[in-house]
Fold this sequence. Notes:
Layout: H1 7-27, E1 35-39, E2 42-45, H2 46-62, E3 67-70, E4 84-92, H3 94-98, E5 105-112, E6 115-123, E7 128-133, E8 138-140, E9 143-145, E10 157-160, H4 170-181, E11 186-188, H5 193-202, E12 207-211, H6 215-227, E13 231-233, E14 246-250, H7 252-262, H8 271-284
Parallel strand pairs: 3-4, 10-11, 10-12
Antiparallel strand pairs: 1-2, 4-5, 5-6, 6-7, 7-8, 8-9, 12-14, 13-14
Helix pairs in contact: 1-2, 5-6
Amino acid sequence: MSSNLHPMLNVAIKAARAAGAIINRAALDVESVRISQKQINDFVTEVDHASEKIIIETLLTAYPGHGILAEESGKEYGAKDSEFVWIIDPLDGTTNFIHGFPVYCVSIALAVKGKVEQAVVYDPTRNDLFTATKGRGAYLNERRIRVSKRTQLKDCLISTGFPFRPGDNFKNYLAMMSDVMQRTAGLRRPGAAALDLAYVAAGFTDGFFETGLSIWDVAAGSLLITEAGGLVGNFTGEADFMEQRECMAGNPRVYGQLVPILGKYSKFASAGDKAAVRQALAADTPTAAEPAATEAPDAAPAADAAPGEDAPL
């Protein structure tokens, strides 16, 4: 740890590395990790809990008067009325982790009077440490990082996350993805939002968007973005997004181009935009009179086709 860093950031780094050590040890034999399900497609492991425990212990040992907001334990630990609140995601990308897919991270942020002032995103598989202190810039392994300089959407790589829980508006997301994919060089879905935001800050990708995210998914990454010269907000471009469950980020030029594309899908869009989206989605929905695909002349009759099942939305 560097003596030049803010002391609270140094403690957060210590906590993140301790959690990363637990995660890396468990990753050596991931099939033996106990897994439970919070809801459909939303998993938690004993590693999440152990990682969160060491983070909280490390932070509260140094700052016993601070508050805690953690993904697994909520506000159970720490002071309840402190102006200093640590926002923790002990293992972002749990589904990746339990499959042995090496894209996951630890995310720790410190909010002071509701504003994020310290941020750590740690990727234990690559030993990549992303850090930021408000007003002091963003860093990857002690090297200053900046958002990309690309200005045209057609040259840009954009990351996202797919809806996967019951109740998610899957058709809406398909429409968003379609609008973005047709205008960019590529769309990626790595599976860990905190790391996605860190990659935008480092210039590895040019932009990011996702709905359904919680504050612990985006708190640390949002400071990395702004300290690296980027912008982060909701789909309409408003900066006060942290608990609105929709997040968009990018370098300033890309961000400005994503707003008119994604803004109409925002929960805060105008009534006219929402109506236009509904009409467009309805127009794309196949009906009994309009089959989804035209049969080839030699295709077997529909009655002989194997039955299929739609995934629950």
